[in-house]
Design a protein that fits this description.
Blueprint lengths: L6 H10 L1 H22 L4 E9 L11 H18 L2 H11 L5 H5 L2 E5 L5 E8 L2 H23 L4 E5 L14 H26 L6 H8 L12 H9 L1 H7 L1
Antiparallel strand pairs: 1-3, 1-4, 2-3
Helix pairs in contact: 2-7, 4-6
Amino acid sequence: MEETISLQDLFKTLKKRAVLILLAMLLAVTVAGVFSFLVLTPIYQASTQILVNQQKYEQNQFNSQDIQANLQLINTYNVIIKSPAILSIVIENLDLNTTPAALNSKITVNSAQNSQVVNISVQDPEHHVAVDIANTTAEVFQEEIQKLMNVDNVNILSPAVYVENPSPVKPNPYLNMSIAAVIGLMLGAGIAFLLDYLDTTVKTEQDIENLLGLPILGLISPISEKDILGMKESPKWGRKGR
């Protein structure tokens, strides 16, 4: 015998276990909020931009081939910026207690398509440290690229600045709590359906029909003790009793 579950049965299960589902959601939101606000370390970000331009010529003219050459150089520059040759000098200048590999993981270098502007972003638990690393990395790269590639086509376009009350880029407590609410609802609904599936007690006539596979011919309504006492005290009951 195959059992089918209708949408009405699903909604009945959700309604019956609504308290459980809400508790699961509130628990998930609370845990996410506690971790986001109290446990996880806030991370701040600072960014600086450098411009890869053409070398200065006497006529001060640029052509499409020169610009294309600069765009091709940007991919090479992105690698050099995060190389130990640059980061080791940054660590030395700022007297950081870290390694080039660890500092590399904090730095992100990217540029928009067909753009000669390179963005250097640094994430750190302390905002002022992130600003110092971003600016120092750009400055060191501007100096060292002249020695490494014998070119002078890098200018600092927009240095990172200190902010009095910076906002962390992560964690995002409200986003984490929203995701936790959805997960809590899904988990609560799953537990509700599991409990309903494991509940094999017979509660309705439909359960009996599904269990035995036989049609229901009649129902016997339950009679409370109050009704029984009332029937005994009635005159009709008394005459039959005699």
